[in-house]
Amino acid sequence: MKKLVLLFITAITIGVSAQESVVLRYNYKKGDIYEIKMKMTQEMGAIMAQTTNTVMSQKTVDVKGDTIVNESKIEKMTMDMVQGGQVMNYDSSNNDDELDEMGKMMKTQMAPILSAVITSKSSSLGDVLDVAIVPNLPKVAQMGKQNSSVVYPKEAVKIGTTWSEIKDESGMTMKIQYTVKTISEKEVILAVGGDISGMATGTISGDMTIDKSSGVAVNSKLQMKMSVQGQEMIMGVEGSIEKK
Fold first, then answer.
1. Under 8 Å CB-to-CB from 181, ≥6 apart: which residues?
2. 160-211: pLDDT as tens digits
3. Residue 24's closest CA among 174, 217, 221, 206?
4. Where are the alpha helices (DSSP H) in 116-219?
5. How many secondary structure helices (H) and strands (E) does the chain include?
């Protein structure tokens, strides 16, 4: 009898766990500071290969009701590129005497980007309401889009729940679908998939780990396989966010 009762309780526990639901929201508090690291890789066969690493700081400067205002700034950037047999390396933390001529040229070009401050206003669901960049630089705006948050559904989610969003970037339309894989005490893991159309066509795959308390994607790994004007390209994006 005791064994039957134990099995019954275990079955109920498993059933409740399987049906656990959670409401995903961004719960930034005024004064919160996060460090955002992003690694982006691009490969186009023998034509080009590039790896860019970026470290950004983000501070929550205001929270009013459902509206969150964050300020972000690029603190460091490194770039390694091979194109047409030419090798180029750049590290924003290097002094002039540590850079070759190509690196010095890159430093001049990157200086305005590294000084820019991005102020974004968004809802607790992740909908971007407004973005201001000082100075206003298209390249920084593009980086801001690449680092944009997941837009969460209004309803609670559980294992198996799916939702989607559409993003338009650089002439491409990306329809992204998120599926809840697991829910634990502290995290929600999402499987990511989707399609790319427009100037490039292809697919998106990967996963994200969401911190339940803050709503932040503490880890993410995505891959985009695309065809651009008949040339195959593989782009990878890995990100992590850590509270300081």
1. 159, 189, 190, 191, 207
2. 999 999 988 778 899 999 999 999 999 999 999 999 999 899 999 999 999 9
3. 217
4. 138-146
5. 3, 14
